[in-house]
Specification:
Number of helices: 10
Distance between the termini: 7 Å
Keywords: DNA-binding, Endonuclease, Hydrolase, Nuclease, Restriction system
Oligomer: single chain
Strand content: 15-25%
Family: Belongs to the type-I restriction system S methylase family.
CATH topology of the largest domain: Adenine-n6-DNA-methyltransferase TaqI, Chain A, domain 2
CATH architecture of the largest domain: Alpha-Beta Complex
Largest sheet: 5 strands, mixed
GO biological process, one term: DNA restriction-modification system
InterPro entries: Restrct_endonuc_typeI_TRD, Restrct_endonuc_typeI_TRD_sf, Type-I_RS_S_subunit
Order of helices and strands: EHEEHEEEEEEHHEHEEEHEEEEEHHHEH
Number of domains: 3
Protein name: Restriction endonuclease subunit S
Amino acid sequence: MNGGKGMKKNNYFSNKWSSLPLGELATLGRKSGVTKVDSEQFIELSRVTHRDLSSDSYVLNQKQSQEEYVYKGDVIYGDGTILVSLNRIHRGIGLLRTQAVVSMGICGIKISSEKVSPEYLFYYLLWLRKYLPKHERWTINYLKSLMIPLPPDHVQQHIVTLLSKINAINEKNRKAIMLIDIYITALYLSQFKDDKKGGIYEERTLREYVEEIEFGASFRKNESLLSAPILKGRPNLALFEVWEENWEKDDIVLKNAPLARFGDILCYIKGDKDSKEPMVIVHTWSYPIAFSNEWVRIKPLSHMSSEYLAAFLRAEYSKVSLTLRTCVRKDLSNNLLELPIYIPTEINQRLFTSMVRKINNISKMHHKSLIALDILNSVLNDRFFH
């Protein structure tokens, strides 16, 4: 493979590395695992599916299989096996750090040569995938014939150490963001319990505190607006912080697009019953955001705290999500507006809002850190592997 400019001492970016096909370095597919499995072998084993791999991380401590049933095509793979999803949608990649039962359609790669480390190959495949055309899936034949550049052991270790450290910092950023979201929900529940105990809350319906509900529009997969970012799917909110820095206030916004502005609440309406986290966002940016039909915009009345209302929707997301999943579109607005909500005094609302905004500023710093590290990670990967 072609490389960048070499370094004088360590030559980490050399284009003189020898290459071998992956089929000569590893055993691929079912031959790299145990295929004759029975129910007893499932006990205490993790189960890895295509969805588990979509996070592209080392597969650690996955939930234990809850049914003692062997699915046709399941394979048990051992520690150090690289997993590649052959699914056209997920295309996930993982590295097992424990023995696990793996779903059919996931290719196991077990290194059989001392010339390459599993961790190095894992990062190489992650980098290579970004050049694989979208919706083109991996195949075992393609993987077997794939030419793998083979730097010396110490260079492989250097690459793995550096990329692992970046990923570890990113994981800490993501965990901090998640903990902040959990803290805000806990703050809401604490406020609610205190007010309820003191008898200083009102039980009303959402209808009395919402000025407008608007559903998003359908955007083509690759469609973009020059004047506003589009909220589609489960977004990387860090990208909105970058847009904030580059947005020109004189930009003309597309009139036909549904737009959310400062103080609006955006709620994800396509989540399934297994959604890991509620997606409820308060618009805090200086520019408008267009949003797809996977999202609904809720505009609170002027005297109602957006942060408090968003915290309510997060805390009650299981009910909200059920309503959103089971209702036809024309009934969604009415069903949402009939949700019961407990409203604290205006003083407590203001106190809650002030605390949440300060906490969210910390969250934004973590989002910006994610963006910076993702850029660094991408640059280093290209230098190492291109």
